[in-house]
User: Fold these one by one.
Assistant:
Number 1:
Amino acid sequence: MEAETFSARLEDMCVLAEKRGRPVYSAFLNDREQYEAERLLGKRHGITVMLWGGDEACLRRVLCVAPEDFAPEREDFPIYPLTLKFRKADKPEHRDFLGAFMGLGIERETVGDIFIGDGCAAVFCTKTARDMITDCITAVGRIGVSVEDGLTDNARSAVKPAEFRDITINTASLRADCIVGRITGLSREKSAELIRSGSFMLNYSECCNISRTLSEGDVLTIRGHGKYVLTGDIAETKKGRIRMTVKKYS
């Protein structure tokens, strides 16, 4: 979504929440949209902002904008969990479910996270998507499925947060090319080429500036190498280098 269009949508939500005196909810937002929403709305007074995807493990989340004196509750979010059952011998993938949903004309923004377990999948979606999936989905690809409202115990056990591991790096500076080089194991020259080629995203936006200074909390996406967060613990070594912790998502 274009930045100006998204910003206008956020403004409309704020105005509507203030006018109605009650919360207004978005569709599911991706990582970049969530980051932008928090960045832009964090500057605005008179509103309360909350993001929720249906479970702590969910990465795609719905934005709630409410009047300042209103305390949003997770239970009030218009998020509907579904269980899709299939034979344990079948092994559908995430893209198979999305393909089946999109094939019905269901818009991507109406579907949140999809967690696939042993013989079932947990799907978080809006009411519109829930109704279409419940009424129309009988197969995912060539795999037959049945749909139930809510999450069964098996489906709930499939809902797990993304895995990550901590990496400690030592770098000469907090420049983008230095950090990318230490994370990827590439030379500084190769790292600079990678950044200039458009293969590096900083906080979900393309960044081609090799000398950009990075800081704690920045989210780095490096094409071919994965997603990382600079979690902090930044300290200077005795030799004047910088030691820091980086979280790598699996």
Number 2:
Amino acid sequence: MKKLIYKEIMLAMHPTAPIFLLLSAMLLIPNYPYGVIFFYTSLAVFFTCLTGRENQDVSFTMLLPVRKRDVVKARFALVVGLELCQMAVAVPFAAVRQHMGLPGNQVGMDANIPLFGLAFVMLGLFHLVFFGIYYQDVRKVGKAFVVSSAVIFLYIGAAETLTHILPFLRDHMDTSDPRYLGEKLIFLLAGAALYLVMTLAAFYKAVRDFEGQDL
């Protein structure tokens, strides 16, 4: 399994992936829909899968003495690793944004703790939709990305809108840290829990779909 993950990092991962991590610096932009920043990691996943299709990555991997389940597991390990790295890289920029003395984000959620909870849910949705389609037929990576991107941007639009109209989000979550810290941490943990549940659901479905393919 370790060798498969190493292969994913060294051979399969698209070179734009680490570059997109640095786009976490966009949290310093005033009045910006910060959810879009986390979309770039899903774009890196798409580029990785697309390049893999063109390079016959799946066909090559299936020639190795590995189980289909482990092939899926290694890809999920890469994706989750990238997403957690982006979260880690984004935290310092969010902290700097909090201390820049600028007004709160007028577009939607500020660069604060609840933003990461919303981002976790968004990425979990991406796993469900993208991998739910991709592993039915690994050649149809474009269809998987188009549908998952539509879902992501609908989610971002809904999240930003609800931030303005729901009193709990507007008055408690969309505030500078550490105000309402306890509630914000619960919100973050709830988002992380949903991310975990959706990622596991996506993984088990992907395994079933991929094992059913005749490659």
Number 3:
Amino acid sequence: MTEEYAASRYEEACALLPGRLRALAMTLPLERKAAAEELRLRVGRAMYLTFPEGEEPLPQTRVTRSDLEQVLDRATEYSRYAAAETIRHGYVTAAGGFRIGLCGTALPAGERNEGVRDVSSLSIRIPRVCTGAARPILGELLEDGRPLSTLILSPPGGGKTTLLRDLVHNLSQGTELVPAVRVALVDERGELAAVHRGRPQLEVGPHTDVMDGCPKALAVPMLLRAMTPQVIALDEVALPEDVAAVRAAANCGVTLLATVHAASLEDLKARETGQALLDTGVFRRVVLIEGRGAARRRRVERLL
């Protein structure tokens, strides 16, 4: 990923901002644009930019409620009704694959949330396709030319989704190490493929089928019945029902790729869901992402 490409993605994200905030955000030098991971807007506060080392305020800014409304209007192309289902889950995916997290007053109805009103803060994530991120470790995730079920671990913001996306792309495209396979991608939060109007905004490969906006426990059996995948990829496995979906897929002979929030293998084992994932006996490899920014390292360990 070049610095120019990374900076251009930042500039595309800035296009969602109101004019005065966009003008100030665009004054950053190229290297800071390339490093920025999120734009964060909170009513009554400065706009903040998230970098690997933490959040920094953008000088001379103060966010208003009108600013948030303008961002949502641009992100939904002035049709919030069309985005009502994802808003109910607390986010919107804009053209270009930019996922915007929402906070405000929830509208619960029993066990279901019906939406968010009086939005008080937004987080615009800046996804970047990091071509080649998976190549240095790809060989360690194969056996006899076939992918092994693999867990990818890191703390939040550590690069799990970026690595999973590139791994999916490699397997779907095929390389000199592995022939192309059919991949079913469960993109519950719209971060992996960032489907917008039926088309992935981020490259996930020619043999990848994306189930967008659907809970993993529902999506996995649907994909098994309808798409005959050879590999199923899941982002952020966190719930007991997600573990059950993993187990069901494995019983059908499908390779599983999944990410989990965990700082280490020991951290994963200390969590009930994490230990349950390991207890399935499905996963053969674990990728540990350590460090942040330029110091980020990816290390593979054998589980079985």
